[in-house]
Write a structure and sequence with these properties.
- It holds the Pfam family FtsX.
- The chain crosses the membrane at residues 105-129, 150-181, 201-223.
- The chain has 9 helices and no strands.
- It is mainly α.
- Among the domains are: 64-111, no CATH class; 124-231, no CATH class.
Length: 235
């Protein structure tokens, strides 16, 4: 063990970096695929030359990004050895493309969760509306117009949706803040608490708009109720 590198917040923090000579020394006695029981001593290993004659892979960094494709083509067309140059960024992009199906499935699950929450809110508003008939009639008797009652119920649905969004985002950031140190120590992945993206703001706006639209249903029912509906005692 020579030293410990400074943490980078990437999976590199979980790796062990050794020299090519050390890799060659590790395989001494395992050339046939199994340990034959003959383990050379440290003095014998120190006298041997473990400089590798060939390597199977290497990571190349370029100072000029413009030459990336030219170097890739030159390596792939190398006549003396069958070589293959792969750009990690392109390979990762293809990998994420393969995982897009799972991402779409999670998005569909999220949509169903939002729909279930909105339907639950609608059910609560309709149930409370039946219990608040007298309250609505009192408001009407005090001079409130039907459109005022309509706006009141739509505002209630809008506020409930907004409170749900704020609570959801707050809990998300709280869980990320609590889990970030654990994930960094266990997996070497640093989670940055960044702000919401424009796409995420659009999704939250759609949820808020859907909550307002859901509020139209109980609001229309209250709008159509007459003044005497809430004053009449139903048995």
């Amino acid at each position: 063990m020579v030293g410990i590198l400074a943490p980078t917040g990437t999976p590199v923090d979980k790796t062990v970096h050794v020299s090519l000579e050390a890799i060659e020394a590790i395989h001494v006695g395992w050339e046939s695929g199994a340990n034959l029981g003959h383990q050379p001593s440290a003095e014998q290993l120190a006298q041997r030359d473990f400089t590798p004659k060939q390597i199977t892979a290497m990571l190349v960094g370029l100072k000029s990004k413009i030459q990336t494709f030219a170097l890739q083509r030159q390596i792939n067309d190398y006549p003396q050895e069958p070589l293959s140059a792969i750009m990690p960024g392109v390979a990762l992009h293809e990998l994420w493309g393969m995982m897009s199906v799972a991402e779409q499935a999670l998005m569909a699950v999220s949509v169903f969760v939002v729909v279930a929450g909105l339907l639950g809110m609608l059910s609560s508003l309709l149930t409370s509306l039946q219990e608040r008939r007298r309250e609505m009639s009192i408001l009407r008797a005090m001079g409130a117009r039907p459109q005022h009652v309509f706006a009141l119920l739509v505002s209630e649905a809008s506020v409930l949706t907004l409170v749900g969004i704020l609570l959801g985002v707050s809990v998300l950031y709280l869980l990320l803040a609590l889990a970030a140190p654990l994930i960094a120590s266990q997996y070497g992945i640093q989670i940055a608490l960044a702000g919401l993206t424009a796409y995420e703001w659009q999704l939250l706006g759609c949820v808020q708009l859907a909550g307002i639209v859901i509020g139209f249903i109980p609001a229309l029912r209250a709008y159509r109720q007459s003044l005497s509906d809430g004053m009449t005692i139903r048995l």
